[in-house]
Design brief:
The chain is of the alpha/beta class. The chain has helices at about 5-15, 30-35, 65-70, 95-110, 135-155, 180-195, 215-220, 245-250, 300-310, 335-360, 395-405, and strands at about 40, 75-80, 115, 160-165, 205-210, 235-245, 255, 265, 320-325, 365, 415, 435, 450-455, 480, 485-490, 490-495, 500-505, 510-515, 520-525, 530-535. It folds into two domains: about 5-10 and about 440-535, Immunoglobulin-like, CATH 2.60.40; about 20-250 and about 295-415, TIM Barrel (Alpha-Beta Barrel). An eight-stranded parallel beta barrel has the order 1-2-3-4-5-6-9-10, surrounded by four helices. Helix 5 runs parallel beside helix 6 and helix 9 runs parallel beside helix 10 (about 335-360). The longest helix is centred in the middle third of the chain and has 24 residues, at about 335-360. Residues about 1-20 and about 425-475 have low confidence and may be disordered.
């Protein structure tokens, strides 16, 4: 069965649409932007997952999640993103570009500075594991093609959208040579030139290049600013490193035995709050010397490392982001008072890293992988994603410790106000200027997203109205939350020609239909007698 609108009704809709025109702006310099980026949050283990962003256990990001990130005190979000697995024949699919745009729009609408990168884990390391001593034309071509397509998709976005060329680039060797550095910088030059060539706001957009393995010491030793690629515009480049020190404390999941002649390296469980009876489990324990390096156990180490970033890069005109930092919760290894002591030290570790970053003018961006269970060994989940309510702060003590560095006070979700003017030159009137209480996503519809539900005279049977800030859903059969439609029967999505685009599999009981990846345009969704008009921007 097909559903058609009358000709008059169709043109009533078309007449209400605004046409976005492109007007290039000269965007602010990187230093001006970085001064407003505060502390940041990563949506890890999601958009960078090869082929399907939900395969590693996290649902597709929602507006509620990004609203919650902003409400928690973060000013920046980093979106690690896979591209190679979505680019058959070297062309990124329109479906994937639209899906990424959906998440970028969520972040921009929440008022966040948004970093979009090319992330390579799980995609065969096509880039970051293949930095050789000479340029590989296949890799170089991919860098140019991918960044040209990405940049064209977002060329009209304002300065709050930032592109990062890579993630953790590194050759499969222990020591970087001058030839390796030269190869990496060549690829970065390709990235910069590809973005600049797309014009419009990309001509002056801030771009980020990464350190060697995003390692501070390797970068300082072998990648001074004199090796950096050239840019056509001045002051629009940033530099990125990551911080997971000491490794035995933050990431190590089992003790390492390096052989009979070498000591066993234990996992560190305790930081500033040490356990006297287990010195080998205290951060900074020297397996060779049998003593504690107090600098590794406290703020001294991040201060020392971040001071190098300031003198070698920031002071030379390249603002620095700490693109990832975080520490696992040592559960289930620990329990009871031992786990409490570990968590005390872990709170202090996060505060120390953020304090040192702020002291030296760096932007710290917390790594969150979404794992809420604390039942494995990779436990870095600070904001809820995998269960309801999406956006609930899970690590309140850690978040409060970080907030205190920026004088934000303890976390209270006071909601946020959406920002709709992030595309320069277009008409971006806000569909709602009301505050959104981000952590209560399960109880109320979002007031705007890249897929906007509306009710009007064309569809009088619509289940709920976008203009209402809250709606009781006890008796509602059909509604949208983020990029998902929920109904009590089969859901069908039609384009404006009456063609069936998607349908849910269930015909009775609760059913869902995902909207991410649909092309821009107008759609009608139906569930039983209920209908929604959808505008995919």
């Amino acid at each position: 069965m097909k559903y058609f609108l009358t000709k008059a009704a169709f043109f009533a809709i078309a007449g209400a649409l605004t046409v976005t025109t492109s007007t290039a702006a000269t965007l602010p310099k990187a230093s001006e932007i970085q001064s407003k980026m505060g502390m940041g949050f990563n949506i890890g283990n999601s958009m960078e997952v090869p082929n399907n962003p939900t395969l590693w256990g996290n649902p597709f990001p929602t507006q509620a999640l990004l609203d919650s990130v902003k409400a928690a005190g973060f000013s920046t979000v980093r979106i690690p993103c896979a591209w190679d697995s979505h680019a058959p024949g070297g062309k990124i699919t329109d479906t994937w570009l639209d899906s990424v745009k959906t998440v970028v729009d969520y972040a921009m609408r929440a008022g966040l500075y948004t970093i979009l990168n090319i992330h390579h884990e799980g995609e065969g390391g096509w880039f970051q594991s293949n930095i050789g001593t000479s340029v590989d034309n296949n890799i170089d071509t991919k860098m140019k093609n991918y960044w040209t397509q990405i940049a064209n998709k977002f060329k009209d976005y304002n300065e709050r959208l930032i592109f990062a060329g890579a993630n953790e680039p590194g050759p499969n060797v222990n020591t970087w040579t001058a030839q390796h550095v030269s190869t990496l910088m060549h690829y970065y030059q390709t990235f910069i030139d590809a973005v600049r060539a797309t014009g419009d706001n990309n001509a002056t957009r801030t771009l980020i290049i990464q350190g060697l393995n995003t390692d501070i010491d390797k970068s300082v030793k072998s990648a001074p600013v004199s090796t950096f690629p050239k840019d056509k515009v001045e002051g629009r480049l940033m530099f990125e490193v990551h911080y997971y020190d000491p490794y035995q404390y933050t990431l190590m999941t089992k003790q390492d035995d390096w052989g009979a002649s070498e000591p066993i390296l234990p996992q560190y469980y305790y930081g500033d709050y040490q356990k006297t009876s287990e010195p080998k489990r205290n951060a900074g324990y020297n397996a060779w010397g049998g003593s504690i390096d107090s600098k590794l156990a406290g703020i001294g180490h991040p201060q020392e490392q971040f001071a190098k970033m300031k003198s070698n890069y920031v002071d030379k005109g390249y603002p620095v982001i700490v693109g990832e930092f975080g520490a696992n919760v040592r559960s289930p290894e620990l329990s009871g008072s031992d786990l409490d002591l570990h968590k005390q030290g872990r709170v202090q570790w996060h505060k120390d890293v953020v304090s040192a970053a702020k002291q030296y003018g760096l932007t710290p961006i917390l790594w969150d992988m979404g794992n809420e269970s604390n039942s494995g060994y990779d436990n870095m989940a600070y904001i809820r994603r995998q269960s309801s309510p999406v956006g609930k702060v899970l690590e309140t003590d850690v978040i409060n410790a970080m907030r205190s560095v920026y004088n934000l006070g303890n976390y209270v979700n006071n909601g946020i106000t959406h920002v709709e003017d992030f595309i320069t030159g277009g008409s971006n009137e806000s569909t709602s200027s009301s505050s959104i209480i981000a952590s209560s996503s399960a109880a109320q519809p979002e007031s705007s997203s890249s897929v906007i539900s509306q009710c009007d005279a064309l569809i009088p049977e619509c289940g709920w109205k976008e203009s209402l800030p809250t709606v009781a859903r006890t008796h509602v059969e059909f509604y949208r939350e983020g990029n998902t439609l929920y109904g009590t029967g089969k859901i069908m999505l039609f384009d404006m020609n009456g063609n069936l685009v998607r349908a849910s599999g269930n015909t009775s009981g609760k059913s869902t239909l995902q909207l991410q990846g649909i092309k821009q345009g107008l759609y009608i969704a139906k569930c039983g007698s209920k209908s929604l008009k959808l505008i995919a921007k």
